[in-house]
Design a protein that fits this description.
- This protein has two domains: 6-169, SPOUT methyltransferase, trefoil knot domain (Alpha/beta knot, 3-Layer(aba) Sandwich); 184-240, Helicase, Ruva Protein, domain 3.
- The model has no long low-confidence stretch (mean pLDDT 87).
- The longest helix has 20 residues, at 150-169.
- With 248 residues, the chain is α/β, with parallel strands linked by helices.
- Helix 1 (20-32) links the parallel strand 1 and strand 2.
- It contains ten helices and seven strands.
- The protein starts with 9 loop residues before the first strand and ends in an 8-residue tail after the last helix.
């Protein structure tokens, strides 16, 4: 069943936030643009009075926020996740501007839950956290000073999501039907299954993995796997290594 608004299917995920004021300001930024789902991965301080104060009249978003022990729990039932990063990365995922990413997220949010991931105030997202997402997002900024406050970055992306929704309403034709996509939880299961088979076959040395699994994640992120495709791949892996069975 599709949501009343695609924005109801968009979750903002903050990973390892240090300052509770940024969580409150994020809630306020979200509410002004019609977003309501906030997920927090291991926040340093939450709940917190400073978060409540900065949220102003958006405390209902804080009260409904989901606190998760890890990123997999926060993203598990989503079907598309975008990681906000200001730095160029080794083995980058497909990179989108803020506007491009917002349009992509809104399109998918008409049918499935999607997520926009933000990292630590001091260091942003780790390479491991980015590997859980299918695309990366950059907010165009002054190259000599591109650092944005966390809540300000959320506000920019929330605005772009709102504008993408407004613009999509004026399109003369309905969005094309999307095939049944694989959830990030299902894709994580594929990655784990593949890694175990690669280790058992001797193709991957767990003591010296280098960037092999990151490359595999990048490959599958580009393909936007469908549920049936994940089942086929895992069935193939189970046939190659019967000791690693797979039940869909």
């Amino acid at each position: 069943m599709n949501p009343a608004s695609p924005l109801d299917n968009v979750r903002i995920v903050l990973s390892h936030t240090s300052h509770p004021g940024n969580i409150g300001a994020t809630a306020r930024a979200m509410k002004t643009m019609g977003l309501s789902k906030l997920y927090l991965v291991n926040p340093k301080f939450f709940p917190d009075s400073e978060a409540d104060a900065r949220a102003s009249n958006a405390r209902d978003i804080l009260e409904a926020a989901q606190v998760c022990d890890n990123l997999t729990a926060a993203l598990g039932d989503t079907f598309l996740a975008a990681a906000l990063t200001a730095r160029r990365r080794d083995l980058p995922h497909p990179a989108y501007s803020a506007r491009q990413a917002a349009a992509e997220l809104v399109q998918h949010a008409r049918h499935y839950p999607v997520a926009l991931l933000f990292g630590r105030e001091s260091a942003g997202l780790t390479a491991a956290e980015i590997s859980h997402c299918q695309l990366t997002v950059q907010i165009p900024a002054n190259p000599d000073y591109s650092s944005l406050n966390l809540a300000a970055a959320v506000q920019v992306m929330a605005y772009e999501l709102r504008m993408a929704l407004e613009e999509s309403v004026t399109e003369p034709y309905p969005a094309p039907h999307l095939p049944e996509a694989a959830s990030l939880q299902e894709i994580e299961g594929l990655h784990h299954h593949l890694e175990q088979v690669m280790i058992h076959s001797g193709f991957l040395d767990p003591e010296q993995p280098k960037h092999l699994m990151r490359r595999m994640r990048r490959l599958f992120a580009r393909t936007r796997l469908e549920k049936e495709e994940v089942n086929i791949l895992r069935g193939l892996l189970a046939a190659v290594d019967p000791r690693r069975p797979f039940k869909s």
